[in-house]
Amino acid sequence: MKLIPRKIPIKVGNKFVAVLSKTTAHKFDLHAGDRIQIKNGHKGDLRAILDVSENGEIDENEIGLFSEPWKKLKTKRGDRITVTIADKPISLVYIREKLDGKKLSPEKYNEIIKDVVEDDLSDVEMAYFVSGCYKNGMTDDETVALTRSIVKNGGRLKFKKRIVMDKHCIGGVPGNRTTMIVVPIVAAAGLIMPKTSSRAITSPAGTADTMEVLANVKNDAKRLQQIANRVGGFITWGGGVDLAAADDHMIRVRNPLSLDPQGMLLASIMAKKFSVSANRVLIDIPCGPQVKVKKRADAIALGNKFKLIGRKLGMKVQILISNGEQPIGNGIGPVLEARDVLKVLACEKDAPKDLREKGLKMAGILLELGEKAKKGQGYKKAKDLLDSGKANKKFMQMIKAQGEQRIAIREGEFAKHVLAKKTGKVVGIHNKLVARIARTAGAPVDKQAGVYLYKKLGDKVKKGEKLFTIYADNKERLKNTEIFGLDNAYTVK
Length: 493
What we know:
Helix content: 25-40%
Strand order of the largest sheet: 1-5-2-4-3-6
Number of strands: 18
Structural class: alpha/beta
CATH architecture of the largest domain: 3-Layer(aba) Sandwich
CATH superfamily of the largest domain: Nucleoside phosphorylase/phosphoribosyltransferase catalytic domain
CATH class of the largest domain: Alpha Beta
Shape: globular
Number of helices: 18
Radius of gyration: 25 Å
CATH topology of the largest domain: Pyrimidine Nucleoside Phosphorylase, Chain A, domain 2
Strand content: 15-25%
């Protein structure tokens, strides 16, 4: 059938979605979620996911095209669009098998991931895939198959050097901007460390959000390859380059219900490492009552899984089980965290000690793993590279190579100080509440917004002394933080 195109000026996120009237859809026994093949003469054709208009906004002789298919088909007024029925992707059969508890072959995982990358699966269909993995689990072989499929259906960086370093933290701790300290130390030692990082999903800042205060984090694979070869490393946004692209799609559908199937978590992380050809990897697993992994025994078990999957992929993986009981560093939010990092790298006296120490510990492990320091000597080597200024110089080279940003390193215009209600000692800092306060203040979208901490666990505090300050560039956002009960962020006894 030939239909008149009507533009729907809304972007739906790279998916090709088209709309038919209820009458036209019924005539051809089509339903929402079905696939249709759309052709605009010699200009192009594509397969789209169908939606059905129930309210008569689309006429029987029309097809509604959202922004992505309208652009892809080079549509103009007066065109006539040919529409035919298309089969649903075979990957939906495999997703149904996973929901039924069946083990999937590498070929089936590859078909699912190919359709994810090509935007041929709706968010609902991807959510069913995530649910199947969550409900029925994944074997180690399935995790490896999923990892390889994610990498195969995206770009990959390759290096001539034998050793390529990487690190990852499974998250849950506000601040914790160790990547921006570790990468320049490791690169200053002569190793290659190509680091892709994520933006915040539910946190006040991801590493990419904080790095973006200082440098461009949207780079294509070719440029990243050149930067790594010339400078020794980079810190960029993984979603801005075609490396493990399928993972960003699946993270989006996992987030609403916080579904984090272990096999999918492992594949998600290891695919990012595999996509940059890393073969020496450090995984940071924060452990504590307020983070993803509550018990040390569970952290050890998860760490062993990472090591096993790493071996199957040809990687040497080491695990650091860290304390997840409180934020790392003083700043929570992009600019505040960036300032902490700059102070640590410049070895300033008021640099947060916990961020410096964790960064040195992690860098030391990687230097030993990368054969740049003997066993037990990595921390000292890392400290020498930091204290000598070599790491800071390397970081400045990375910023220049990626493209320096001009965002002001300042706090938000409006501030609210939260004071201690009594004299005592800090016995609890509530990570999730601190993070929620920082996000409500505007982070990470408002780069200067966030929370600055003055006290950490074990610190003595006097009544009326500042515990933390909230910064915002908007009075209303600052006022909105009060709904959480700001005094509950700290426990003083």
